[in-house]
Amino acid sequence: MKTRIMTNYHYDWDSNEKTFFVYQDDICFHYDQQHQTLVLALPFKNEIFVLEIFSLDNLVIDVYHSLPLGQDQKDNILNYVIELLDLNYDLPGFYLFSAQDPILKLIYQDHLGFRAYSYLNLYEAFMWTIIGQQINMKFAYSIKSELVKKYGRAIKHKDLTLFVFPTPKVLETVSFEDFQKLRLSKNKINTIKLVTTMFVNHEISQEVFNSFSTAAEKIKFITSIKGLGIWSANYILIRSLKQNDVILFKDVGLNNCLKTLLNLEKIEDSFLLALQERYQQWCRYAVFYLWRVLY
Fold first, then answer.
1. What pTM was estimated for this model as a whole?
2. CA neighbor of 233 nearest in space, from 215, 256, 245
3. Strand (E) positions, the chain?
4. Which residue from 41, 154, 166, 270 has the least number of CB within 10 angstroms?
5. For residue range 38-96, what is the model confidence (pLDDT) as tens digits?
6. Nearest 10 degrees: CA dihedral of 189, 139, 261, 119?
7. CA distance 224 to 45
8. Distance between CA atoms of 20 and 105, rounded to whole angstroms?
């Protein structure tokens, strides 16, 4: 059964395609370049919905499901897509700020219409942060792919097999030895098992983060978990929690972008701290737009 949800949102696929090419090794979604369509599986309670997201004039969501959708379900799916593609972010405000900034004014016009693609599954964001520490993206995606294929949920849709990231309760049952078969280091496995247990026990959740009033409190909480440092904390805040006022410290990609743009030998933390203080609520998108210098 298919239900079509029409929206009032415009999405610039041409400006965002590079994002999907960079993440093309991510097993949890599929991008059809020919039809400019994003396809993914969305779990909701005991059912998995398949979403095909594309544009006619505005953004359209085709939902494939086994039972008729109620209005609440339609609203939830629409809100999910709005958050996934960051459709409510104030791009005009960011561009006004960028036009006056000596760094951002060098790049922002090359990427007009680009919006961040978010990790809305907080557990997946934590796991990806741990898996991706200190290894290249290709290797990290290969590990994630093996993990999801073995422990996640799969659903057939047309000629595709779509996957849903495994839940904390599923990964809690995985042995240390089975994690080792995925080519994960001992330290990463220990961190994965610790974080997974914390999710199962509701010690980490969206509600926990909602109880914090500042980015500093969230960073302190994440970095108190053994195996997660400042890079991990800021990455989770930027990619999943949409914390607009933090910049990414200790990130090789961001540092390389800044070194290229500014012809610097090294990027000091003090320089990034000054940027964070200057950019304030524009920090998150400053990071995303600076990353674009790499591709």
1. 0.93
2. 215
3. 2-6, 30-32, 37-44, 47-55, 59-64, 153-157, 160-164
4. 270
5. 999 999 877 899 999 999 999 999 999 988 889 999 999 999 999 999 999 999 999 99
6. -60
7. 31
8. 24
